[in-house]
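Look over this record as teaching material.
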Amino acid sequence: MTAQDSSPLSTQALELAAQALFLSSPNPRVGCVIATPGGQVLGQGFTQQAGGPHAEVVALRDAAARGCDVRGATAFVTLEPCSHHGRTGPCCDALVQAGIARVVASITDPNPLVAGQGFARLRAAGVEVEVGPGAQQSRELNIGFFSRMVRGLPWVRLKAAASLDGVTALANGASQWITSPQARADGRAWRARACAVLTGIGTVLQDDPRLDVREVATPRQPRLVVVDSRLQTTPQARLFDVPQREVLIYTAAPADTPAAAALQACGAAVVSLPGAQGKVDLPSLLRDLAARGVNELHLEAGQRLNGSFIREGLVDEVLLYLAPMLLGSGAQGIAHWGPLTALTQGLSLRLLGVEQVGPDLRLLARVAGRDDF
């Protein structure tokens, strides 16, 4: 089978990887298809929840369940098979032991524990290795994993909703709901794919949100992160009403006070990271989240915290929903971080896509040059 012939099966593996979108965190989203040299599919699968089998093992088990012999077959996989012992054994060894003759992988694993070692072990065992088909798609699907492994930071996606004239709330503070039910459901799907959702104490005090995933089928709730410099979150906040969800509260205050103890009694982890002017040190917060295995961070906050993330160069991508209405004077702008004195001081974005969601528009834009890692 030639590299050109392998393209449909590499595409099939990528489609399988997308099925791990809400599932595999903090592990990458990986799909695998095992096929004969003639293209007959013997087994397939995608990475399961952390601690569960990776895509290659799921595909091998699927082939066994079908009664298929995989010796001499090709494994099409969307990421380099791992070569290290974590919660599971090395996938490269599993493929070798099964008698796989050829591996077609989309891209090298950026994890320093792998980073080409999986390919090296496969080749040393006599397995033919081809790298490249679907590389861009696999990297995009795992942009947060690549960010954490290469930069030591999660991929930060700022989500906001506004009217066409840029109003995020009326002068009296009313903001629910600017966008349609369809747009809100779509936004919750973006929450579901993230490892963590981050908001600020201003949003907690004003809206008392749950910030959970609803109306979207998902096997897990992403962590909730609250930036609360003075520990104003109360144990009665609705954010604690979501069962089996980890809550992290970052503060500039000491973490050994009665206020911190009350939040810890609710199950929250309180982390003290004081920065300048009595605020939380946001770069340190991101590094701490990366150390906790957060790949994608979904930022849903108010103007001031959004502005702080932009001002400090911490936003990678903007997810913006625009409602087809004009609201006039109000709390205009999704972020408060000026004033600027020149247009060149603005944050340059590269538009990735525009789609209509219900009556609204969804724009996805990336900070220029941010994905050059």
